[in-house]
Amino acid sequence: MGALGESMTQQNERYDDRMVAIWLLICAATIFGMILLGGVTRLTDSGLSMVDWRPIMGVVPPLSGSDWVALFDEYKRFPEYQLINQSMTLAEFKVIFYYEYLHRMLGRLIGLLFFIPLVVLWLKGRIRPELMPRLLFLLALGGAQGLMGWYMVQSGLVDRPDVSQYRLTAHLGLAITIYGLIVWQITSLLSDGRTYRMGAGMGPVYLIGLVYIMILSGGFVAGTDAGLSFPTWPLMGDSFIPTALYRDGWISAFEQVTTIHFNHRMLAYLTALIVVTVAARSLAKTADSRVRIASWLLLLILACQVLLGISTVLTHVAIPIAAAHQSGAVLLLTATVFWVHSKQTENLRSDF
Predict the structure, then answer these.
(1) CA–CA dist 198, 341 (Å, integer)
(2) pLDDT digits over 48-65, tens only?
């Protein structure tokens, strides 16, 4: 038993949870930047400027004037130019092209940042065996995200000058899923000394689902430009509840701008109410310092996000504010994941 125990100790010493966490933290930060850049790409109507998908050859940008002319001529064959941007110059095309180009290059970089260290750390035996299936699942999700991105772009290259709000929201939702899973794993790896409580239950976890659904509703707002429909707050136009809600039945929740905008506001109010309630209850009842820190973070980020949401509406979706609002949603999810993990590992006996 002594030899077996010594062997297990040596094996555990090979695993480097901190190094794995730092690697995943770099990946999460890059994905956060990717989500932000994706939002800016959408806000600047740049997403359809690259009309083909070349995973390898597409890494090289246009290098000559003739290259730019050829790309611009290709862009002119599709609905966005023909229906909206007929007066666009080559110089203006270059601006929207580079937003989409950088977005795609950052996606490729994330793939390399995840895959290469994963292989190296695995070969060196730094990753715990039970963690590998989760990391491989994340790798598969990353590949699916690349395919989903192109599937989204294709919807705007057929007969409409915009991408499908369904595909855009699916693309956003998958990015948020990958990000959230990585943040949870980072939190677990850096929570040495904390163990899950059997009686914690699933209650706190539902808060992640609520924030996630609110982010998805924001995807439909972005995909239909519903944020521009009512540049007023707290009323929508002349009333709190606008007319024509669900005019076309349940499908209005996904395709009618008034209903989409209204639902996003209502989800935001509900989320704010629940977050304030659970954070306040935690602060009143817990002695665990990490839970208290997580609760204050929730309240602080929520307050900023509410202000950014209102400002986005009142400024007619000004790009810097709208991009900050999208980033705020990701930060709120991050704080929610941290809070839920802290509650699931809460120390009820003494301060941490």
Answers:
(1) 13
(2) 999 888 877 678 888 899
- Of 190, 207, 237, which one is at a domain's C-terminal end? 190
Dig out the tokens for 204 from the structure: 């706190």
Decide: helix, strand or coil at residue 236.
Answer: strand
d(CA 52, CA 272): 41
pTM here is 0.92
Q: Which domain holds residue 145?
A: 1-190
Helices (H), ranges, 124-204: 132-154, 165-189
User: Which single residue is written with the structure tokens 């996000």?
Assistant: 305
Tokens coding 173:
């939702």
Whether the per-residue pLDDT at 317 is higher than 90: the answer is: yes
Q: Phi, psi at residue 206, to the nearest 5°?
A: -65, -25
Task: Note whether 47 and 152 are same-domain residues.
Answer: yes
Q: Look up residue 138 and give its amino acid.
A: L
Asked if 186 and 200 sit in the same domain, the reply is no
Residue 350: band (very low, low, confident or very high) from pLDDT cuts 50, 70, 90: very low
Helices and strands in the chain: count of H runs, count of E runs? 12, 0
Determine whether 25 is exposed, middle or buried from the number of CB atoms within 10 Å of its CB (0-12, 13-18, 19+).
Answer: middle
Name 315's Cβ contacts closer than 8 Å, sequence gap at least 6.
231, 321
Whole-angstrom distance, CA of residue 168 vs CA of residue 183: 23
Residue 128 and residue 159 share a domain: yes
Q: Which pLDDT tens digit goes with each residue over 174-201?
A: 999 999 999 999 999 998 777 776 556 6
Whether residue 242 has a cis bond before it, omega within 30° of 0? no
Taking the C-alpha atoms of residue 295 and residue 287, their distance in angstroms, rounded to an integer, is 12
Give the phi and the psi of residue 193 in degrees, each rounded to 5.
95, -10
**Which residues is 6 bridged to in the sheet?**
none
Token reading at 342: 């802290």
